[in-house]
Amino acid sequence: MHTEKAIHEAILLIGPTGSGKTPLGAYAEAAGFAGRRCVHFDFGHQLRLAAAGDPPENGLDSAATAHVREVLATGALLENEAFAIAETILLRFIERHAPQPDDIIVLNGLPRHVGQAQRIARLLRIILVINLHCTSEVVFERIRHNSGGDRTGRQDDTPEDIRRKLVIFGERTTPLLEHYRRQGVDVITRTVALQDAPATLWSTTRP
User: Fold this and answer.
1) Helices assigned H by DSSP within 4-132
2) Axis-axis angle for helices 43-52, 62-74 (nearest 10)
3) 81/79 Cα distance (integer angstroms)
4) Is the torsion defined by CA of 190, 194, 198, 203 positive or negative?
């Protein structure tokens, strides 16, 4: 299930766990960007929905659904050979939300490494990257205080889980910034503090 043509423009949110990508994406969907409607694609949330669903209702077969559950349980990334899972989830999301040609998809959690970025380029054209810079100390404090209001019920916020995610982010996701810079995509970095609100962060991205 794929297309050879980029079907929508997208803004990519990059930041470590707890940096506020999900509340920022939700705010972007409500506020729009430069007069254009935004649709927030929260890949982590979509993975959790897929894991909780029954094949084939979630668009995945039993083996793919089992792989999603394993990824969520271990904190691993979807590697290139499993990109078809991400592709299916993304395209079904687009079908459900039926964005218009001028709408922008706000990507949160996908792509998470360069291999995924190369594959997703067939589906979406990234026009802006927003890099949420957040130190590990602030990450732990934001999660402890639930600063973004999006951590309730999360089972993967133990100190060990957080440290593992920060290592993976530094090794696998951070290189995306240079990847997109080399392609001429604007990368805007915003330093996130403990109580920074999505409205403040989003307002500074306006053209």
Assistant:
1) 21-31, 43-52, 62-74, 83-97, 114-120
2) 120
3) 6
4) negative
Q: Domain 8-200 belongs to what architecture?
A: 3-Layer(aba) Sandwich (3.40)
Beta-strand relationship, 38-42 and 186-191? unpaired
Domain ranges for the chain: 8-200
* pLDDT values of the chain reduced to their tens digit, one per residue, 207 residues: 344 455 799 999 999 999 999 999 999 999 999 999 999 999 999 998 888 886 666 688 889 999 999 988 887 888 889 999 999 999 989 888 877 889 999 999 999 999 999 999 999 999 999 999 999 999 999 999 998 888 887 878 899 999 999 999 999 999 999 999 999 999 999 999 998 889 888 876 655
Local structure of 95: helix, strand or coil: helix
Geometric angle at alpha carbon 174, from 168 and 175, rounded to 5°: 115
Structure pTM? 0.90
